[in-house]
Amino acid sequence: MISEQIRVRFAPSPTGYLHVGGLRTALYNYLFARQNNGVFILRIEDTDRSRYVEGAVENLIETLKWAGLDYDEGPGKGGEYGPYVQSQRLDIYRKYAKQLVEEKKAYYCFCTPERLEQMRQELEQKGEFAKYDRFCLNLSSSEIEQKLKSNTPYVIRMKVPDNTTIKFYDLIRKDVEISSQLIDDQVLIKSDGYPTYHLANVVDDHLMKVTHVIRGEEWLPSVPKHILLYSYFGWEIPALAHLPLLLNTDKTKLSKRQGDVAVEDYRAKGYLKEGLINFIALLGWNPGDEREIFTLEELIQEFSIERVGKSGAVFNIDKLNWINLQHIHKKTEKEMLPILKEIISRSKYKDQLFSDKYLEKVIHAMRERINYLAGILEKSPYFFEPPSSYDPNYLSKHWKSETPIWLDKLVEAFSKLENPVKNDFESALNQTAEALGVGRGKIIHAVRLAVSGVGEGPGLYDILDILGKEEVINRIQQAIKNIKIQYARE
RNA sequence: GGCGCUAUCGUCUAAGGGUUAGGACACCGCCCUCUCAAGGCGGUAAUACGGGUUCGAAUCCCGUUAGCGCUACCA
């Protein structure tokens, strides 16, 4: 016997950008599919028209593509079980809802939102669970027909049995049981004709032959509704796995306000997809040994649902930074060049021209000093424009009254160099220091300040080599002038 | 409020009856060094609380507490 092919899906709703929590859900689904030679489906759950955001689907697909999580079936890709956008499947949901109504497993409800609101308030005041009171459960068929004919707005609700306990097994949480007493007669079809998540999800998972439902923990409490639906339809229930939540530093559910949650924001900062994926994979899963750095391929090999944890994980940016650096270590300058160029094209330096060779040298000099590519612009703007100010602390420590005299000598020495490279700058500086009878360290710090304006960064000779003779001399002369002015003001 | 899920260093986690409770990030110190990083070495730091079961509990059971999730014609 050949066992059934594994099919999983990532089913986001297009409400804007892809959330990092969503990326993790997508990743785990992807890993599970790939390691089992299964199928990874992308399904768009756009059944809430009020929350629909223009362009969100394209954005979602683009971001998934960037992350390297390519899907086998879905919008723009096709597949046997499409369409993969729920708003294009309305007839299907209506058909199944009708079927349930005919079998008395669901019923029309004509209650107005106002009545429901009032009912809830009353129940809440009495301290009772605010559950639909089944006002419309026993309407006569003639009543129903009449209301339907007069176009009274309606929803279709599923009928939930009164007193059963629903037990199910979750791959991550093991045995869970919930009493049906607490389950409301869930709306399946809304008055606008669109299905709710619960109906659409169950119908689609069945029709698309999904074998494993891997999704966020926030869905755990509604599993009984889904199980009821599966049994009403007489369908097999897929395996379930509810992933722990991603949290803010203060342990609340990960949200905007407390930092970036959109995958595209990390991308824009120049985090490597390898770094983000690696970090996110480790939020709730570990290989069982002490390895931490993984490529996507390695994750496919190593991942297992059994090793996914149960408790929420804080999204810790420090760890992301470290993991991303580990992946920067593995990249060549050439590989990172397009990312840097992209960042520059969105920066204030976008109109300046920098050669690929120049930028590769900058990456080489900065790669150990950053955690993401945009860090190059943040930490070493001096590779893109002359310093506009000089760090006061560094200045007071390393800029003495004799400094301008030494630097004049140095400029003189540098001027004589022809097409100097790193070593030429170094020996010229050494010779000048010796001739002056000054420790070379003193000159080095002053030059660093003059050319970069700050007291940190790559080795000085690397900076000089990148900037080139003309620029170096200009900046030193500029600094002598500017810093004199600064002194004069004080 | 009700229901559910969860609980090991600050954070991510390992250990699933017997370990000095391990690793990683962060933090601190030292080395390296023209600065800042990177790298190397070392250090501080945890089983939420209370009861059981057991020769022995982070681990099994019960309770408490806390956090989070759900309780919509949102997903």
- Count of individual helical segments: 20
**CATH architectural type of the largest domain:** 3-Layer(aba) Sandwich
Mean pLDDT: 93
Widest beta sheet: strand line-up: 3-4-7
Relevant terms:
490 residues, Rossmann fold, Glutamyl-tRNA Synthetase, domain 3, two-stranded parallel ribbon, elongated, RNA-binding
Quick overview of this protein structure:
By secondary structure, this protein is mostly helical. The protein is built from 20 helices and 11 strands. The chain has helices at 20-35, 56-67, 90-102, 113-125, 141-149, 197-207, 223-233, 263-269, 273-281, 296-302, 317-329, 333-345, 356-366, 375-379, 392-398, 403-415, 422-436, 440-452, 460-467, 469-489, and strands at residues 7-10, 39-42, 106-109, 155-158, 165-170, 174-179, 187-189, 212-216, 239-243, 246-247, 313-314.
Notes on the structure:
By secondary structure, the protein is mainly alpha-helical. 46% of the residues lie in helices and 9% in strands. It is built from 20 helices and 11 strands. A 3-stranded antiparallel sheet has the order 3-4-7. It has a two-stranded parallel sheet with strand order 1-2. A two-stranded antiparallel ribbon has the order 5-6. The mean pLDDT is 93. It binds one RNA strand of 75 nucleotides through α4, β6, β11, α11 and α18.
Topology, please?
Layout: E1 7-10, H1 20-35, E2 39-42, H2 56-67, H3 90-102, E3 106-109, H4 113-125, H5 141-149, E4 155-158, E5 165-170, E6 174-179, E7 187-189, H6 197-207, E8 212-216, H7 223-233, E9 239-243, E10 246-247, H8 263-269, H9 273-281, H10 296-302, E11 313-314, H11 317-329, H12 333-345, H13 356-366, H14 375-379, H15 392-398, H16 403-415, H17 422-436, H18 440-452, H19 460-467, H20 469-489
Parallel strand pairs: 1-2, 8-9, 10-11
Antiparallel strand pairs: 3-4, 4-7, 5-6
Helix pairs in contact: 1-10, 6-7, 9-11, 12-13, 16-17, 16-20, 17-19, 18-20
This protein binds one RNA strand of 75 nucleotides through helix 4, strand 6, strand 11, helix 11 and helix 18.
